[in-house]
């Protein structure tokens, strides 16, 4: 559609790959339609994937206790994030359509939400849903036997006392961890019958 | 259990964080049991997360068409991967239990399998299952409206002709992409009723 802006976030090392073809054909077809197409070619850009304090220029809000979320939020407001991040944010803001393409997908999963939010009817769905790719698709696939997950829900919204309790309950579980049986790592465990 | 070896893959920037506490208590409890505990503290190690040709030392098998999978496989056999990767592989091999811990999880998802493998009764489960964290947990969560996915299954097992067909079908879809309605990005779309 003429006039639309598209951003393709592209992650593959070899331009002549199948992924390269899919990206090229997208650029060609969308340009033909009159779109403006930007490509963030992450490997070619040598894009920095680590989330560290180097992402923040200037003084930290709380240098003695580094919280990436807090610092990035403050730096975002003050426009003091590094230039490579600001450039990508600008592309996303301007785009009408963003495509993520690549054989490798990098996901950032937070358990910042409470346990209520991670039940079947909760806003985030059952917590087992998001475990599927990691537990089944990666660990089980690679031959690991998988123990039941240990999830500490929403520590940042808990009291100091509750946090201590969560740490203690982890310590408690570890005492008998060698006696545990692996979960049956198949669809019914994750999604029911 | 005395004599067991444990590897904790730990990813958090701040040692005094809640994640730091969970890691510390695991080290303490498991050491108390007589286990040998190794910690891969990825941020402290400044671990390189990008999968590039720098991971392979010496000559490439196919320098004119770089395939990370092929080169890494060959380099693994010849022990010519970079020393940081070999060191981590050794830790995983030696460990009786591996823990992944961190507020950030990095997942690697491949669509190397065929469409048959990604149905409800297939070995990999319905392909929608692994889309949940990315589409719902990341994109939907961040406010994107999500279009139906475009999955090219198993291009490496397809013929040249079939690959061209897959590229063409992607190009075809793009022609009318602006007319598409977003999917209803909620649990029923992913897991049925």
Automatic annotation (TrEMBL), chains A, B:
<dbReference type="InterPro" id="IPR003680">
    <property type="entry name" value="Flavodoxin_fold"/>
</dbReference>
<dbReference type="InterPro" id="IPR029039">
    <property type="entry name" value="Flavoprotein-like_sf"/>
</dbReference>
<feature type="domain" description="Flavodoxin-like fold">
    <location>
        <begin position="4"/>
        <end position="101"/>
    </location>
</feature>
<keyword id="KW-0560">Oxidoreductase</keyword>
<dbReference type="GO" id="GO:0003955">
    <property type="term" value="F:NAD(P)H dehydrogenase (quinone) activity"/>
</dbReference>
<dbReference type="GO" id="GO:0005829">
    <property type="term" value="C:cytosol"/>
</dbReference>
<dbReference type="Pfam" id="PF02525">
    <property type="entry name" value="Flavodoxin_2"/>
</dbReference>
<comment type="similarity">
    <text>Belongs to the NAD(P)H dehydrogenase (quinone) family.</text>
</comment>
<protein>
    <submittedName>
        <fullName>N-ribosyldihydronicotinamide:quinone dehydrogenase 2</fullName>
    </submittedName>
</protein>
<dbReference type="InterPro" id="IPR051545">
    <property type="entry name" value="NAD(P)H_dehydrogenase_qn"/>
</dbReference>
């Amino acid at each position: 559609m003429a006039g639309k802006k598209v951003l393709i976030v592209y992650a593959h090392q070899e331009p002549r790959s199948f992924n390269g073809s899919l990206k090229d054909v997208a650029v060609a077809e969308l340009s033909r339609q009159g779109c403006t197409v930007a490509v963030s070619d992450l490997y070619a850009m040598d894009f920095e994937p680590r989330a560290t304090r180097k992402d923040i220029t200037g003084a930290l809000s709380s240098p003695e206790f580094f919280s990436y979320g807090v610092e990035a939020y403050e730096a975002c407001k003050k426009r003091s994030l590094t230039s490579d991040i600001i450039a990508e944010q600008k592309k996303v803001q301007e785009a009408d359509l963003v495509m993520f393409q690549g054989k490798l997908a990098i996901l950032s999963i937070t358990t910042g939400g409470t346990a209520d939010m991670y039940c079947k009817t909760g806003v985030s769905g059952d917590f087992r849903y998001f475990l599927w790719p990691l537990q089944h698709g990666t660990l089980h696939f690679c031959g690991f036997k998988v123990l039941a997950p240990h999830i500490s829900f929403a520590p940042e919204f808990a009291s100091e006392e509750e946090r201590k309790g969560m740490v203690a309950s982890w310590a408690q579980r570890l005492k008998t961890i060698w006696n545990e049986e692996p979960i049956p790592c198949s669809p019914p465990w994750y999604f029911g019958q």
